Every structure is written in structure tokens, then in C-alpha cells.
Amino acid sequence: MSLSSDHQHPSWRPPESPSRIGITLETYILEGMLGFPAATGAFTSLLNQLVLTAKLVTSKVRRAGLANVLGYTGQTNVQGESVQKLDEVANETLLSVLGRQGHCAAMVSEELGDMRVLSSDPRAKYLVVVDPLDGSSNIDVNISIGTIFGVLRKEESKAGAEPSDFLRPGRDLLAAGYVLYGSSTLLVITTGLGGVHGFTYDPTVGEFFLSHEDIRIPEHGATYSINEGHSARWPESVRRWNAWIKEDAKPEGRPYGARYVGSLVADAHRTLLKGGIFAYPADRSGQGKLRLLYEANPFAFIFEAAGGKASTGIERVLDLTPRSLHERVPLVLGSPRDVDDFEQFMRGER
Ligand code: AHG
Ligand code: MN
Ligand code: MN
Predict the structure, then answer these.
(1) What pLDDT score does 167 carry?
(2) End-to-end distance of the chain based on CA atoms, in angstroms?
(3) pTM of the model
(4) Any atom of ligand 1 within 6 Å of the Cβ of 328
């Protein structure tokens, strides 16, 4: 379904005066350019540890076909999904790097049934949630995959952490980001306050360089992203929205074009830059697929920091209080107007 030129909406463009383009991610963090007012050494060091894991994982991803990290381990994870070697490699990399410098008290990962304590030192004041390898079904067909992370602060300076420390609304996140292993490796990060920034990896230098400063999502877009193969189990309201978004209504900018990669990081990143909407709705049982702690919340935090919206279709994702570490939610991400349209269908107002 091609879009006529008048449907093309300007996607995000770098600021006219790209004054900071090209500086390294480490410099950007050190200068507190992520807008984090109290960028203490520990927080800066933790973010740089996450950058290191991105470098290590990207080198494994880029050689996956050669380094015998394709294929399955033969195990299944807590989600009941078969674990790919690269899922495990990415998870182990995060555990070993984040466990080194003592800033991260504990980690919750898609690949770990329970929370993993990484430091019992009371001075370890951060908690990390992570989807080590997102889009696993695309690993062995060489389609974009990613890593998703979020950073929370432990409530009080106590030794270790408990799972309940993680069961906080996403609005409490200190930072969130993702690494997209696509045509190039791009790390996008925000602390909420200082905007959303993208850094592209230069493997010849081994550094991430600022390439997308202050990403802002367009007010509305021209593409929608949803797995139409699941339409039989959607609620009727979602089916009506789906039919509406495809109507031939040029004056209102419809039909939207369909784009669906099947890796949340890829589909969300495209939506962030070009605008439009990504939806993984609940099935009739109300159950979503995507996990609240390490898929929905980090992206909701990023989208809102970039001027977008993130909803379950009914309510703001960042206001949800998780009931369990691997709780699943319906997820709608996108331009404000596009998410508002979707919610009106869900409320039966259209
Ligand atoms: P993961 O590989 O971490 O389990 O995540 C897969 C998720 C997400 O990346 C994507 O949006 C969704 O699964 C795709 O699900 P469908 O194949 O049902 O569309
Ligand atoms: Mn995932
Ligand atoms: Mn995953």
C-alpha cells in the first residue's frame, strides 16, 4: 500500500545547528547532557556499563552467523519460550558487566525467572530491567533485533534488593533506552528530562557517536504497525480501528501504510522517528504479549520524553503498578494524535 506524496509526513530531522553531533556517548553522559541533574559518578558509571554491554552484544550479533551463537539452547525461559543462544549470550553479558562495578544492586531480565542480586553493598543504589535480546524470532533470518533497558533507583539505601523494589510505575524510571542492531547499531537513551538522543556505533573506532540529537516524534504519522495475523482474537473495537486506519480517506491522511518487522525495538524506533502508531493489543482475554517492566515501560518512558504517547489502549502505561516481574500488558506507542484516535475506538467513542 503506497502512500501518495501528500501523505508523506516529515519524519524527525536533526536540529538545524547540530552543534553536538559527533561527540561520543561517554562524553555526552559525562557532561550530564542527558539532562540528569544529579549525574553522580555512580549513575554515569552505570550508564557507561550499559554502553559497554551494547558494544559487546553488537559484536556478537554482527558475527552471530559465524560465532556459533545462532540457534537454540534447547532450554525454555520463564515465559515458556525456547531460548536462543544469542538471548543467553546477551543476558550473560549484561549480568557480568553490570555485576562488576557495584552500582547495580539487582537486575530483572526476560531471561531470568527471578530477580538477580548483583551487589549487596548498600551503596549500590540502582536497579536495571532488561530485555537482553528483543525480536528473537528474527535472529536467524538476519532481521533487526535489539536490547531494551531501564534504570530505577532503589527506594532506600539497604543492602541487596527484593522483587518488590521493581514493582513500581514506569514513571519512576531514571533512564531508559534501547540498542537497535539494524543496518547500523544505534543506541537511543533518555533520562526523561534532557530529551531523547541517538548514538550510532562506529565499529572501526569502537565508539558510539551522537547522530540523532533531541529526537521528537511528529504530531501524527502515516504508518501503522500491528500484527494483522492476530486480528481474529482482537476485541471488536481494535478491528474497527484497523478497518478505519486503512480507509481510502485522503483528505484525512488515510489509508496509513502498514509496516511490521516483528521486533518491538525496530517497529518502535521507526514509529519514534517517522510518527504513526505501533500497537500490540490485548487478545479477548485481556492478556497482552509484551512485558511491562522491560518492554512497555522503557518504551513508554522514551516515547513520552520525545513528545509521544504510550497507552494500554485504555490508560497511560507509565501509571501502571506492576503486579509481577513478568507481567504482560497491551501496548500502544506513537504520535499523540494517532494514539488518541486508537483510544477513542477502544472507548467506543468512534
Ligand atoms: P522477545 O524476542 O524479546 O521475546 O520479544 C518479541 C516481541 C517483540 O519484539 C515483538 O513486538 C513481538 O514479540 C512480536 O510478536 P508477534 O510475533 O506475535 O507479532
Ligand atoms: Mn522483547
Ligand atoms: Mn527478549
Answers:
(1) 98
(2) 24
(3) 0.93
(4) no
CA of 83 to the centre of ligand 3 (A): 9
Q: Is the CB of 111 under 6 A from ligand 1?
A: no
Which amino acid appears at position 294 of this protein? Answer: Y
Q: Domains in the chain and their CATH numbers? A: 25-212 (3.30.540.10), 223-346 (3.40.190.80)
Asked whether residue 40 carries a pLDDT value surpassing 90, the answer given is no
Check whether 83 has a pLDDT greater than 80.
no
For the record, the C-alpha cell of 170 comes out as 514506569
* 87 Cβ inside 6 Å of ligand 1: no
**Is the CB of residue 225 below 6 angstroms from any atom belonging to ligand 1?**
no
**DSSP state letters, 182-248:** SSSEEEEEE-STT-EEEEEEETTTTEEEEEE-S----SS-SEEE--GGGGGGS-HHHHHHHHHHTS-
Per cent of the chain over pLDDT 90 is 74
Can you tell me the mean pLDDT for 126-150?
Answer: 95
- CA–centroid distance, 188 to ligand 1, in Å, is 19
The overall average pLDDT reported for the chain is 90
Q: Does the structure show a pLDDT above 60 at 171? A: yes
Q: Is 318 in the pocket of ligand 1 (CB under 6 A)?
A: no
